[in-house]
Every structure is written in structure tokens, then in C-alpha cells.
Amino acid sequence: MSTVPETYTIPVGPLHVALEEPMYFRIDVHGETVTHVDINAGHVHRGIEYLTTKRTMLQNVVLTERICSLCSNSHPETFAMAAEQIAGIAIPERAAMLRVVAAEVKRIASNLFNVALLAHLVGYETLFMHVMQVREIAQDIKETVFGNRMDLGAICIGGVRYDLDEETTGFLVAALDRLVPEIEAIVATYRTNGSILGRTRDVGVLTREQGLACGVVGPVARASGIAYDVRAVAPYAAYDRLPLEVHVLTDGDVWSRAMIRLAEALTAIDLIRACLRDLPDGPTRLAETPDIPPGRAIAKSEAPRGELIYYLKTNDNPQPERVKWRVPTFMNWDALRFMLADAKIADIAIIVNSIDPCVSCTER
Amino acid sequence: MPTELVVLVSVLVFPGGLFAFALGLALKGVDRRVAARLQGRVGPPLLQPAFDLVKLGFKRTMVPDTAVPGVFLAAPLIGVVAMALAVALVPIAGVYMPDPRLGNLLVLLYLLSVPGIALMIAGSASGSPFGAVGFSREMALMLAYEATIVLVVAAVGLRTGHAEGQVVTFSLAEIVRHQQEHGAYLLDPVMWPAVAAFLFFYPANLGIVPFDIPEAETEILEGPLLEYSGPALALFKVMSALKTVVVLSLGIALFCPVAPDGIAGFAVWLAMMLGLLVVGISAVRVSIGRMRIDQAFSFFLKWPLLLAAASLTVVVVV
């Protein structure tokens, strides 16, 4: 039919069933093959950076937690780390361990969510349902220990706002024991299932060189053979005292990124168990909420999606003068140009999902 | 009753028309419920497909500015009419034999490709780029699976023809009668590869996972159906429900049309339809992910075609 031209442009987004958040790709395709990609951002800009300079330091811990739901613990944690650096505060040992517990619980849930979505995009609904059901165990942990399914409210400047007693520790241990065999079964499925392998192996490949050029971080970097993990290279909280294993794969395809996420979910469980084993007694926060003196600081942490950097500048006011953060997705989505080059239309959503884009973090 | 009236009743009331419409919706409801249970979900009420139709009936059909309105609105009608005719062409053992004037197996094959063509027309008439992608995918998929179904039908036709002392027969009535007298092809080892090939044809023709490629929701947003809404979309849903009845009953007519006469035969046929639905459709679509169009194309040119060709070769040689 002459009405169907050979090359045409299809819009993916800003509202698209395959994208959980608004992002707009203008994709030129020839037949089923992608020839050019334009990435267009800015659909969920809410002016949160500006808002932080209108709030006090205390209020900002609450505000940064609401930048995005999936990394909701990493933002206040890194903000608090920057503030503590300015004030020269060392948080109590028990608080450092509890921060690791909160961060790793969020990591388990976030990674499982992404891996589940991969199955959904491949059209494998049963596997999607199953992985989401396993993730529900992590959600139960959040609800039981922290009182909330997404925003934990665990962090405060100078420590944490929650504590583990005998009952919650017991629940946590039992839930982790249930999670391990489930996640191991999911790993085995993703390793062997023909539907998953056929759609993810050698799809959306990012080589080590391309990854370094884009400065990718997190699981995207580690799946391309770049062994960069903030928890290992610049340990914070209690990570230098914990058995952290940095997983690296070299193929750089969608499958490798999923496998890295699953492996990190298992490592997160090991980290939480180590924390619970070595958890010292003592306070969970400073006795008094500290005043933050004028100063500047940069702090970084490993969010589920990769390196999260906070820049904080304070003056004599209770409000910060400037807060700026760089989220992992900002670094990773540039690499989409390489991953989407010569991809098939069918793989666009799978590839975009493989960087686990967090648009509300990036556009705040 | 004059024979014209009989033909009309068979197209409009039983087994085509009203009956097929109700049965198709019921089958869709069962399929959704069974698939949900297999996935650990509760699933919708059995009548959900009917509720959906009622809801769509109360909505407006939006015709996009970029669409060709006449073609856009005619496409679903063409599909529904073709399927309503097709249902009347398939015999139900012991219950219903189609009037030979309606057409034979070859006509049925042509009618079976109409829904795919209707979707292609719909996709290109909607003016949406996703419709265009759906169009090209539907075409590639049809090219891939039509060869298989033609070989399967040829194998059945030749086998029956040989046994009845002719070269070949494409009369479904004769094929059914032959099997009722001499046993179902399902128990005939020569036909097993053809049965297997036919099972691959199910998901491809009905557009379900792993071959829901032309409508892949997470890739091209339902493709040709993207721009459809209201009654026009409802017609496409009716078409899909009718097509389920046609291909399921075709499978039974080709390979297992053995049943007692009358009500008992009808009950057996219904049970077989349900069993085939659960095994051939619901179970398949929950246990596998979607293929890419290039993967599906090369897959169909390999296994199903090979299986169908194997049966055909044995039938011709022996």
C-alpha cells in the first residue's frame, strides 16, 4: 500500500503504557528498525529544588523524601549526609547500621520492581505477577518495620527516626528468610527461560567504552563491566564494615542489567543480615536536633539506580541557600542513544526500562 | 422449512449469529478467568466481556482527523460479517451440518483471513504510526501462519479424499462424516504432526501471547486498535469473540468430530470447545512471553510448517 511510507516517526511518550513515568522519545524508524532517537524531558518538573530553599533544614528531610517514591530513602539520606558534613557530626554506630537496613530494604523492592516490569514488557504477564508477589514481601517489611509501603520516613539529620526492637527484628529476619529462596528461584528463571533470554540477550548493548564516555552509574555501569559502586569506592554509613559484594557483568545487554539487579537484591539481604547480627546498642540519633552552620558540602550515596550526589550550601538562615542533586538516571539516559541505535521497535520499551529510569527524580 | 430459511437461520441464529456471539463472549470470559487463576489472580466476572461491550456501546466512536472515515468505520463491520458467516460453515458433529451452498473448507480459509485483513485496513486507515507498524506486523505474521494452515487443511483434505476414493475433498461435511465412521484423526498417528501444527496456528490467528505481536500493548499500544473507541471497538471485540468460536470449532471438526447425536452431542462439543480453550489458549498465553516479529516469522517457517509438511508428505506417499 502506498499510504504506508517506508520511514516514519513514532512518538513514544510522554504518556505510553510501557513507561511508568512521563518521558518523550521521538523515534524515527525504517520498517521495524530505529534510525534516530530524540529524548525530550521536562514533563514532571515541579520546582522542588527551588522549594528546598524555602524550607528549613528539618522540613527538607521530609521534602526530599517526596521527590520520587522508588528512591525515597536515598534522597533524604544523602541530604542528611551533606548537612552532617557541614556541621561536623558523626552519627551513632547504631544509626549508621539502621541507615543501611533502610537503604537495602528499599533496594530489594526497587530492583524487584524493575525486573518484574521487564517481564511485563516482554509480554510474560505470569512472571510479572510472580515477581510482584515476591516484591510484596519486601513491601510487608517496609510497612511493618517503618509503617509505610513507600516513604519510610527513616532518616533524620544526625541519625534515624526508627528503631528495631525484638519483635520487628524477628519479623525482618523471618521475611528475609522467605525472600532468599524466592529471589533465587527468580534468578534461575531469568537465567533459563527462553522467552526472557530471547528478548533480552544482546538487546540494547552498551559497551564498556560507551558506558565510560556517558559516565553511566549503578547497575547500568556494572552490567557493562564498570565496577563502580559508591558503597565500595566511597563507603558511607556502615558500608566499610559490612561484607559488600560488587557484582559486575561484561555483556552490557538488557539481560545483564536485570541479572545485576537480582544479584544486588540478594546482596542487600546479606547486608541487612550482617547489620542485624552486629547491631550495637546505643542511641539511634543525636540527643538534640543539630543547628547546621554556614558552609558547603557534597555527599554521595548509592541509590538503587546508582550514584546520587547532593550539593548543599547553607548560610545563617534556617533555610539552605542552595540544594542541588544529580540523580543516576540523568547520567544513564544519555546512554540510551547508544542502546537504542539500530534497535527494533519491539525492543524500545525493554531497553528504556533497562536503565530503570526515574523521571521524577531527574526532572524534580 | 424452505432451504433458504434454513441457511438464513444457520447464519443468524444457530450456530452463527446470536448463538456464536453468546458462546464467543462466554469463552472469552472463561479464558480471562482461567488465565487469572493460573497467574494467581482472582480474575474478572465471567460476564466481563459482555459488560465491556455494553460499556463501549454507550460511548462515542471517535474518528481521528488523520483517518479515512469510511474505511475506518467499515473495517470492523467487514470483520464481524466474515466471522458470522464463517461460524455457519463449520459443522458440529451430530448436531449441525452446513448447507453445501454456503461454501466449503476453502471458503472458510478465505473468511478466516478476513479479520487479519480488517485489522490491517483499520491500522492503515486510522492514520496512526502505531497502526502502520501493526499493519506491517499483521501482514508478516499472516504470511507466516497461513502457509501452515493451508498445508494442514491439505493434509486433512487429501487423507479424507483418499479414503473416500477421490483425490481430495474440501467439504467439511464429508471430512466430519468420514471421521464419525472411521474414527477421529486425533487418533491417527499420521495426522499427529498436523494436529501439533494446528495448535501453533491458534495463538497466531487469535493474536494472543506469544504471537500478539501486531497488537503488542507494551510495544505499539494495541497497534491497529489504538484509535478505535466506542461501538467500533466493540465490533472488533465481537469479531475476536466470533473468531475464537470459529477456530476452536474448526479444530474439532478437522481432528475430533466424534460425538453422539442430539443434545448429548452438543454437550460433548461444548466440553471439547472449553477443553481446547483452556489447553490451547489460556494455558499457552500465561506460560510464555511475546516473540519479536522476526523471531515469530522464522519460528513459523520452521516448526509448524515442518510438522504440517511432514503430515502432508506421509498422506501423499502412503
Automatic annotation (TrEMBL), chain A:
<feature type="domain" description="NADH-quinone oxidoreductase subunit D">
    <location>
        <begin position="122"/>
        <end position="286"/>
    </location>
</feature>
<dbReference type="InterPro" id="IPR029014">
    <property type="entry name" value="NiFe-Hase_large"/>
</dbReference>
<keyword id="KW-0560">Oxidoreductase</keyword>
<dbReference type="InterPro" id="IPR001501">
    <property type="entry name" value="Ni-dep_hyd_lsu"/>
</dbReference>
<dbReference type="Pfam" id="PF00374">
    <property type="entry name" value="NiFeSe_Hases"/>
</dbReference>
<dbReference type="Pfam" id="PF00346">
    <property type="entry name" value="Complex1_49kDa"/>
</dbReference>
<dbReference type="InterPro" id="IPR052197">
    <property type="entry name" value="ComplexI_49kDa-like"/>
</dbReference>
<feature type="domain" description="NADH-quinone oxidoreductase subunit D">
    <location>
        <begin position="288"/>
        <end position="364"/>
    </location>
</feature>
<protein>
    <submittedName>
        <fullName>Nickel-dependent hydrogenase large subunit</fullName>
    </submittedName>
</protein>
<dbReference type="InterPro" id="IPR001135">
    <property type="entry name" value="NADH_Q_OxRdtase_suD"/>
</dbReference>
From TrEMBL, chain B:
<dbReference type="InterPro" id="IPR018086">
    <property type="entry name" value="NADH_UbQ_OxRdtase_su1_CS"/>
</dbReference>
<keyword id="KW-0472">Membrane</keyword>
<feature type="transmembrane region" description="Helical">
    <location>
        <begin position="105"/>
        <end position="127"/>
    </location>
</feature>
<feature type="transmembrane region" description="Helical">
    <location>
        <begin position="300"/>
        <end position="317"/>
    </location>
</feature>
<feature type="transmembrane region" description="Helical">
    <location>
        <begin position="6"/>
        <end position="27"/>
    </location>
</feature>
<feature type="transmembrane region" description="Helical">
    <location>
        <begin position="190"/>
        <end position="213"/>
    </location>
</feature>
<keyword id="KW-0874">Quinone</keyword>
<keyword id="KW-0812">Transmembrane</keyword>
<dbReference type="InterPro" id="IPR001694">
    <property type="entry name" value="NADH_UbQ_OxRdtase_su1/FPO"/>
</dbReference>
<dbReference type="InterPro" id="IPR052561">
    <property type="entry name" value="ComplexI_Subunit1"/>
</dbReference>
<feature type="transmembrane region" description="Helical">
    <location>
        <begin position="234"/>
        <end position="260"/>
    </location>
</feature>
<feature type="transmembrane region" description="Helical">
    <location>
        <begin position="67"/>
        <end position="93"/>
    </location>
</feature>
<protein>
    <submittedName>
        <fullName>NADH-quinone oxidoreductase subunit H</fullName>
    </submittedName>
</protein>
<feature type="transmembrane region" description="Helical">
    <location>
        <begin position="139"/>
        <end position="158"/>
    </location>
</feature>
<keyword id="KW-1133">Transmembrane helix</keyword>
<dbReference type="Pfam" id="PF00146">
    <property type="entry name" value="NADHdh"/>
</dbReference>
<feature type="transmembrane region" description="Helical">
    <location>
        <begin position="266"/>
        <end position="288"/>
    </location>
</feature>
